[in-house]
Amino acid sequence: MKYTKKQFQAQYSDDGACLNAILERQLERDPSCHGCGVTPAKFHRITGRRGYACQDCGHHIFPCVGTIFEHSSTTLTDWFYAMYLMTATRNGVSGKELQRQLGVTYKCAWRIGHQIRNLMAARDKANTPEQLSGQVEIDETYVGGYKRIGENRVGKQIANWRDNKSCVMGMVERGGAFKGQVVPDNKRVNLLPVVLKNIAYGATAITDELASYKKLPKLGYKHEFIRHGLKEYVRGDIHTNRIEGFWSHLKRGISSTHVSVSRKHLQKYVNEFAFRYNNRHAPADMFARMLAQVSNP
C-alpha cells in the first residue's frame, strides 16, 4: 500500500487542514480544555492565527507551540509537503531539492530538512525497543571521501584512506530494528559501550573478525563471527548481510542524493535512513507516524 502525492494533497490542501491535523492528534492524547476542564473539549479556529479557542470558556490553545513549526514563518503546507517527500522517497531529499520544490531559500530548506531528521530520530527512539535481542548483526563502516595531499607526475596522492572519513557503528536485529551511532573509530573502547547500551544481555552478537569484539563472551553475549579475511561470508545462518545491505543503501543514498555530508551532521542522516528502514514494512504509515510525533513533542 502506498501513500500517493494525490492522496496527500487531497488530505492537506491548505494550512487550515494541516493545523487541524496537528490539533486532532493532540486532542487524542489530551481531549480536555486546560482552561475550564471540559472533556472532551470543543474548539473553534481563531481567524488569522495558528490557534483555537475553547467553545465553552474561550481559552486559547496554539497547536504549533512546542513543535518544529513554532517559530517558523514557512507555511504549514510547505512543512507538510517536505515531510511527505522525506518519507515517500527511498534515499531522502537534499536541501537543494527542497529549495526547488518549496520555492524557499536554501537556508530555510536546509533548516526544514534537519528539523525533519530530528523528528524522525525522536519517532524512531520512541518506537524502537531500548535494547535489541535475539540474533543481532554488528558492523562498522566508514563514510566520507578521500583526502588529497598533493600532486605529482603520476597523479594525485591519497593520504591514509580513513583520514577524511567518519566511522559509523550499526546493529540490526534479525527481523527487527536497526540502530546506528557515529563513533570516533572502531577500537574496543568505543564499540563495546555501544553494544552494552543497545543490545540485551544474552543476545547472540554476529560480527566479522574485528578484534574489538573478542571480549563479547565475557560481557554475557553469545558471539559468532565471520572471517572476511579468509573470504568467508556465510556459514549457515552466521553472516552480516543485513547490516552490510544497510551500509550499501546508506552510502548510495548519501552519494546520489546529498553528494556528501559533514561529520557534524552525519548522525542525523544515519537516523533518517534508520527511520525508513525500521518502517519499511509500512511505508504508507511513515507520514502519519511522523505527524503523530510532531503532535507529541
Features:
297 residues; alpha+beta; 2 domains; five-stranded mixed β-sheet; 9 helices; 39% helix
Strand order of the largest sheet: 8-7-4-9-10
- The total number of structural domains is 2
- List the uncertain runs: none
Number of H/I helices: 9
- As a percent range, the share of strand residues is 15-25%
> Secondary-structure element sequence?
HHEEEHHHEEEEEHEEHHH
- Secondary-structure content class: alpha+beta
In this structure, how is the largest beta sheet organized? 5 strands, mixed
In round numbers, the mean pLDDT is 92
CA radius of gyration: 23 Å
* Fraction in helix: 25-40%
- Strand tally: 10
For the termini, the CA-CA separation is 28 Å
What gross morphology would you assign? elongated
Short description:
This protein is α+β, with helices and mostly antiparallel strands and 297 residues long.
Task: Give structural notes.
The protein has 2 domains: 5-127 and 285-291, no CATH class; 135-260, 2-Layer Sandwich (Nucleotidyltransferase, domain 5), CATH 3.30.420. The chain is built from 9 helices and 10 strands. It has helices at residues 5-11, 15-29, 76-88, 95-102, 106-127, 188-198, 241-258, 266-278, 286-294, and strands spanning 43-45, 52-54, 60-61, 135-144, 148-152, 155-158, 165-173, 178-183, 204-208, 222-226. The strands form 3 sheets. Strands 8-7-4-9-10 form a 5-stranded mixed sheet, sandwiched between helices. The chain has a 3-stranded antiparallel sheet with strand order 1-2-3, with no helix packed on it. Strands 5-6 form a two-stranded antiparallel sheet.
